[in-house]
Amino acid sequence: MSQKPDITDLTICRAAFAAWVFVYHVDLHLHFSQALGMFSSIITHGYMGVDGFFILSGLILLHTHREFDAVQKNALITEFHWANKGVVLRFYAKRLARIYPVHLATILILLALVGGGAAMGMSPHSPQRFGLTTLIENLFLVQGWGADNFGAWNYPAWSVSTEWAGYLLFPLFALLLTYFIREVSLQVAIAIFPILGVIYFFSGHSLNLAFGAGLIRFFPEFIAGMAACRIAAAAADVAFARAVFLWIGGVLLLGGAVLGVDLLTVIGLWALIFTFYMHADAERPPVLGRRPVLHFLGLLSYCFYMSFAIAEMLTVRGFQYFGWQPTNQKLLFAAMMTALTFILAILLRGFVEQPCRRAANRWLQITAAPVSAPATETPQSLF
């Protein structure tokens, strides 16, 4: 498959994953899921949207960065790093430019809000979240690497921290998966799910592992996404295979979400993402169709995901100021939090994310060696 600048189905998936996580966090305040009866777990397990992001990230990175293909490079494992140091450094620079500016901007916004509140004699709702140690960890993107700092600063960024750990190891993972025949990647994909099953069992039948335990959840799903990219071409042209995976993924995703079984849900997420990628590989029309609004929301999803905690804090403080209870003003709370999240996300995308990415791309083109042309950037990589 040619490296298209965009895969519509996967970009729309990003919008769905971000919305799922967002609704889950709104429900933590409003508890509206209780009115859904047997379907309430679809909302209360909305943290599984992050798992979709993790799988999608591994797939898209391997699809995009073909410079790490061991077969194409004819490189031995022991020679890879030394022969391609410039390529690896460029990859790190590109990924850091993709995630860090928005992350830093949200930290600065929170610093301004906390500092401004302190100047007016207002302490944050959870002052322990805003310590100096956790600030340093967030600035270096290591807060999700084992530190048990629940909710520190922009708390959704724990997953961005785990993504950064994945980026650091991605060149090695990519080399190993592409060095061996595709059947090995199939075996890896199959083996990942029993591993997730063990994690699911010993974590109290939940994959809601974040902050200090985030890497345990992240790496199996990230590698499963990479394996899906590697094996897709073998089945992409078989319409029956695409149909089977589509049905399996849909049933497992919906069934796992309704039953509250995270392991089934993540398998369903993987199968659906795999199906969408096979359709793109076979150059078939998008399964979800061409939806301009959903596509835009997918492009906005990283900024949206990184904005909702700030919007949540402002909404909660506003309700406290007026003496309102969120559960008594559910519609107003949801509307305020949604509006603030969208406003902040659009501002971050327009004034931080896009300008910084353009600047980084120009700088990388100037500094690139002639033999190392930059890989095409796809907008649907995880964040």
Largest sheet: none
Globular, elongated, flat, extended or rod-shaped: what is the shape? globular
- What value does the average pLDDT take? 88
The H/E string reads: HHHHHHHHHHHHHH
Per-chain topology:
Blueprint lengths: L7 H23 L9 H5 L4 H16 L5 H4 L3 H7 L1 H35 L12 H8 L18 H22 L2 H21 L11 H22 L3 H21 L2 H20 L10 H31 L7 H38 L16
General description of the model:
By secondary structure, the protein is mostly helical. The chain has one domain (8-367). Helices cover 71% and strands 0% of the residues. The protein contains 14 helices and no strands. The chain is globular, with a radius of gyration of 21 Å. Residues 370-380 have low confidence and may be disordered.
What are the key terms here?
383 residues, mainly alpha, 71% helix
What's this entry about, in short?
This protein is mainly alpha-helical. The chain is 71% helix and 0% strand.
